[in-house]
Amino acid sequence: MPEPMAAVRKVQAAIMGAIAVVRSDLTGYADRSTAEPLSDGEWPGYVIRYEVKFHLSPELGQFFNDALFTFEVQSGNTAGASLDQINQQAITDISNALQADPTLGGMLEDIQPVGSDNSQPDSADVGSAVLQVRATYYTLVRNHEVIVGHGGQLFP
Q1: Neighbour tally for 49: CB within 10 Å
Q2: Cα–Cα dist 12/106, whole Å
Q3: What is the largest CA-CA distance in the chain?
Q4: What's the rounded Cα separation, in Å, for the pair 72 and 8?
Q5: Which end of the chain has fewer CB atoms within 10 angstroms, the N or the C?
Q6: Per the confidence metrics, is the pTM higher than 0.70?
Q7: Is the pLDDT of residue 46 over 60?
Q8: CA pseudo-torsion sign 117, 120, 126, 132
């Protein structure tokens, strides 16, 4: 029997899988602190973080989940005040990968890019840029491990 996994972690894994299909050379890292930048040998790569808000959807007996995923793409180059070409292409490739199937196989209601920008003040000085995408999906009211996808398909 598989170990229980929060729905948002399933979405995160599906996102990382979709990106890997398009950019196998762009490694993703989850659960990495902002104080722990990627190092030589890990570039180009990205760190993925998320925050999720739950909204009760009483007519469906489900929660509507609104998740904001943040990708910090790191090229290893000092980018200064603008996005370097490696980060620009990585952000484009990530966005395109997610837009190729914005339901991630029927798991999500939708996933859309929010925007991107250059290095954040608290980012590591390794040529980083940020991309944010919003993913929306449903879970069961008393079980945030089960995603209710399109047509009622369950993703336990």
Answers
A1: 17
A2: 14
A3: 51
A4: 18
A5: N
A6: yes
A7: yes
A8: negative
